[in-house]
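Thought: the user wants the 3D structure for the chain below. I'll pass the sequence to the structure tool as-is, report back what it returns, then summarize two notable features.
Action: structure_tool
Action Input:
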Amino acid sequence: MNMTSTTSFSVVVEENGHSRSVSFAEATQELHHASLVWTHIYQQDPEGVAWLRDSSGLDPLVVDAMLAEQTRPRFARFRDGALINLRGVNLNPNARPEDMVSIRLWVEEGRVVSVFFRHLRTVSEICDRILAHNGPRNSGQFVQELATELASRTQPIIENLDQTLSALEELSLKSLNQETHRRLSITRQRAIRLKRYIVPQREALSQLSHEDLHWMTQRQRASLQNLVDQVTRDLEELEDIRDRAALLQEEAESRRADDINRKLYVLSVVTVIFMPLTFFTGLLGINVGGIPGAASHWAFISVTGVLLLAAVGELVYLRIKGWL
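Observation:
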């Protein structure tokens, strides 16, 4: 199947693992004959959305939830079926991985209906395996494999964030310039965005693993519980990355504040030294008669010497007071 970012499709998986592509109408007819019927719908595909609303047989509340513009990962049980929203890292060209892509699922015995807004590479790979007769053969296995692969694609992104932060920590030992500070901020923001979606995803998977749904085997539920533990470790690593980045940012702000204070201190010292000298030179520079030494050739040198002595005296006084 030639999948693109806007391709809707239906596939049927037989008991023996063999599969084939079918139309939406054929997918409905195969519900009670195949091991798994998977219908994947692009949210802006008029034909697919029309089938979902009018011919899928799903509850209108479920359909509205699957087509909602903004969703977070969640799990909700409806009788023998389940509405599951999951997210995976965005591996599309020119995209940020932490801008996670959602996939909305309706899962019941022998049937999966999914809706997507943007292309998700994991879905393409599962579809390719199914068509190669090597994919999931039932609803429980489909959800288990999808959730596992979504999580596995998140781990390299987290590892990359950790390596980036470690490099920034080494740079910060030398200097925390504006570029390093900017990269720290970006790294922290990426960790926060990932965590925002992964936390509810862990909760959704945890709820799913504890539900007694007859289309999920005990082994599949156990696999999901192990996956929840893995996702929890990923979250702990994201927490660590976020906290380390925050500490480095605080250190950068502290260093910047110290640098500004040092510069202000130097300016204050210069002001203290030159203020009386400026007053004295200003007094001698007034344009009135009777200025002492106005007619003397040695007056300028004498005044300059006095000013230098006054400046040295001020420096000695500041040093004695411990202000320098």
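Final Answer: Structure generated. The first strand starts at residue 9 and ends at 13. Residues 9-254 form a domain with the Beta Polymerase; domain 2 fold (CATH 3.30.460.20).
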